[in-house]
Predict the structure.
Amino acid sequence: MLEEKIMNDFKQAMKNKDKIKVSTISFLRSQLKNVAIAQKKEKLEDNQVIDVIRQQIKQREDSISKFNQANRKDLSDKEAQELEILKLYLPLEISLEDLGKILDQIILETQAKDMKDMGKVMKEAKDKTQGRVDNKTLSEVIKNKLSAKK
C-alpha cells in the first residue's frame, strides 16, 4: 500500500537526516491522518492517498507561482524540492492518446450524448484511470469529447 511506502520512506529519510524529505513526508502524513480521521477510517485506500498527494502538489505549484512573482527564489526552490518528492508517490500518468481511448469507451458504455452526461462520464473515468491523470486534464478532455458529439 502507498501509505506504508510513505511511512518507510519517512523512516529512511530520518535515518539519512534528509531534512527537506522528512518535513515534506511528515506534512503529507499529517494530511493523510487528518483525512482518515475525517472519514473515520484507520487506513486510506491508495486512490484516496493519491487524491491527498495531488492536493499537496497543487498547493506547492500555487506557492511556487506566488513566490516567483514575489521574487523569492529561495522559497520557490524549497517548494520545488518538496514538489519533486511528492511526485514520486504518484502513479505513472496516462498519455492523452490512451486517455482518449478510455474515454471513448466510457462514453460508448454510458451512452453519453452531451454535456449533461459529464458527471457520469467523469465518475466512470475516475474509477478506470485510478489517479493516473489529474482531474483538471480529465475534465478538459471529457468536455472536448462531449462537445464534439453535438
